[in-house]
Specification:
Elements lengths: L4 E3 L8 E3 H11 L10 H11 L5 H18 L5 H6 L2
Antiparallel strand pairs: 1-2
Helix pairs in contact: 1-3
Length: 86
């Protein structure tokens, strides 16, 4: 697997992140509920992922990741990504 680092346009500090990590952050952000977390760690995590939720770069990387997984495994659950296209 090629480890290509990209500059994240949404995270502070000129963050460099792999395309795979970007895709996973985008997918994880789609799972965030509207509930306010209680634990400090969960609050910080939610704030960090909120910026990924509508990121077009993350979405593109997530689609590429799922296509790659589909080619590798022969299956892919891309329903979540296609629902966000609406």
């Amino acid at each position: 697997m090629d480890l290509e680092l990209i500059k994240c346009p949404r995270q502070p500090g000129n963050l460099r992140i792999s395309k795979n990590a970007c895709a996973l952050r985008y997918l994880e952000a789609q799972k965030i509920s509207a509930e306010i977390p209680v634990r400090e760690f969960d609050i910080i995590r939610k704030i960090g992922l909120e910026t990924c939720k509508t990121c077009p770069v993350g979405k593109r990387n997530a689609i590429e990741l799922q296509i790659s997984n589909q080619e590798t495994n022969g299956t892919c659950d891309n329903k979540r990504i296609h629902e966000t296209n609406s």
